[in-house]
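Q: What does the assembled structure look like for these inputs?
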Amino acid sequence: MKKLLILIASLLLFYSCNNEVDITNPVVDPSDFMSQTKPLPESSKPLMEGVYEVIEGKDLLGDQVVVKWTRDRLSIFSGKNGGYILLESGSLDSVVFLTGYWRYSTSTETGAATFYIPSDAGGGEIVSGNTPATAIRFIGEYGSGTELANKPLTLKFARPFSDEVKQSNFYILAHRGGGRNSDYLGVSENSIEMIDIAERFGSTGIEIDARLSKDGVPFLYHDGDINLRLTQKSLIWGDIESFTWAQLRTLVTLRNGEKIPSLREALEFVLEETNIRAVWLDTKDVDVIDSSIAIQHEILQRASDMGRDLKIVIGIPADDVFEEFITKPNYQNVPSLCELSTDKVIQANSLIWAPRWTQGLQTAEVQQMQAQGRKVFTWTLDDASYIEEFINAGEFDGILTNYPTIVSYYHYIK
Amino acid sequence: MQFKKLLIALFMITSAALAQVEDTTYSLSTELGIGYSRYFTTMDYSDLNKNGFSGTVRVMWNPEHLLSVGLETGYQYLYSIDVSDFNTDYGTTKFSASMNAVPIFMIFAMKITPNIKLTVGSGVYMLNNSGELFGDQLSSSQLSIGARAGIAYTYPINNSISIGGELLYSYFSKIQDQTVAIQFLFIYDFLKY
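A:
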C-alpha cells in the first residue's frame, strides 16, 4: 500500500511540472517624472557610450560595465550573470535623467534602476552635445523585485570603446528573435513584440524560424507542433503546419498573448521599425524555401531602395534543406547561410558559414571562408566563459546566442 | 547456528511455495466501463461543451496478491464547440472544433477492501482534433503522455461476473487539462488458473 501511495505521489509530482515562469515587473518611474523631461539630442548619445567603472553597486554589476545606446534605450551590460540595465532618458535643465530596470539574463532577478548625471559630472555637456571635459558620472540607485530603487549605484566613465570595437562590423544575433531573455520578459520568442525589443539587449541581428501553413503562408514558429511551451491553450492542437494561416491566426495565441506573425510581417517590421542589420531565417521545413526566397528578395529590394544596411539570409541547417535549396533557380545568387561543411557553403555560394560552436574556434577554416568574402557566425553560444573565449581568441564575424547581453559585454570591453 | 538459520529459511520458503500452489487462483479479466465525463480547463469559451462520453476497456491480470496489472484503452471525450457566427479578424464564419483522446495505458489496481479498489495508470493518449473554420477542415492527431487514477466499487454477481461503478480522474500532460468521469463497470473473469 505504501509503495502504491509513493507511486501515485511520484506520478502526480511528475505530471504537475509545468513551464510557467513567475515574472516580476519592477516599479519604474512611479511618479511619472520622465514625462517632465526633454528628449536628449541624438548627437549627445554617443558621448555617453563607453566602458564605465562601477564605483557603487559592485554586488549587482561587478567591477565594470558597458554603456551603449541601442535604438530607443540606453543599455548597460555587465559581466555578472548576464546582467543589464535598460533605461529611458531625458534631460531637465542641464541634468540627464535615466530610469528603467535591471535584470539578470540567467535568472528571474530584476528590479528598478534610476540615475542622473549632474551638470558638473558631464550632464551639461551631454545636454548641449559637447564632449564632456570631466569623466561622466552616473549617480543612482537600484532596487530588488518590486521595491523602489534604494541602494546606491554609481558608475564612472573609464574609457571609450577601443578602435578595434569601433571599427568592427561584429554581429550579435539573438536566437529566436530575442533569445532566452524572452522567458523572463513576458514577451514570446519569434514574435513581433520580441523583435521590437531585441536591440535593447545589444542584438544587431536576429535569428527567426520559418514554417509554412497548410495554405502556403510562411510564418514564424519554432516547434513542429502547437504546444504550451510556445502558445497559450487553444482549441486546436497538433502539427502546426496542418492548419491554414487564417486558422492559426484566429485560434492560436503565443505564450504571452501575441499573435503568430507571418514572415512578411516580421521582415517588414525589421525593415521599417528597427536598425537590425541581419536576419538569419532558419528553415524549419523544406517546403518553406520558395516562399522565403520570394519574400527575402522583395524585402531586400526595398531595403536597397531605402539605403538600408540589411542582410536577410536563408538558413541551410541540414542536408535535406541543402538538397532542396540547390534545386532552386539561380540559387547561388540567393543570399544564404549554411551550417554544413565548407564545401557545401562554396557549392551553395552562401554569404555566411555558420558552424556549431562546439566545433571550436576553427581559425584556419574561418580565415579560409573570410578570404573568399564570406562571413562566419557561430551558434548557439550561451556560456559566458566560452563567449569570452570566442570573442577574444576567435575570428568570427558574429555569434548567435540566447544571451545577447553577455555577448555585448565581452564584445564592447575588447 | 548458521545451519539452523538455513534450515528455517528452507522450511519457510518451501512452506510458502507449497501454500501458493495449493491456494492460488490467478485470473485474467476484462473490464468494460462506460459513463459521463466532465472536462476541466482554463480555456475561457462560453460555447465550449465540456460534457461527454467516457469509455474504457481493460484487460487485467489478477494474481493472488491484492495488486493487479493490466492494459487499458478506450475513448475520452474532452470538448466540442460549434458556433455559427464566430467573429474573427477575417470576418464572421462558422466554427466547430472537438477533441477526444484514446489512451494506451498500463494500469495498476489494488483492492483496499473486498469491494473497493484503487486504480492508477500511466501511458500515452492519442489526442484527436477535428473541426471546421473558414470552410477548411481542422484535423490533427498527436500523442500526449498522461495519467489516470480512480476508485471503483464492484459487486460480484457470480464467480465470473462483477458490476460496479468507478470515479476516474484523467490528466493530459500535453494540454495540461483534466477530466473527471463516472462510469458503470462490467467485469468478466474470462480465464482462471
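The two ends of chain B are 41 Å apart (CA to CA).
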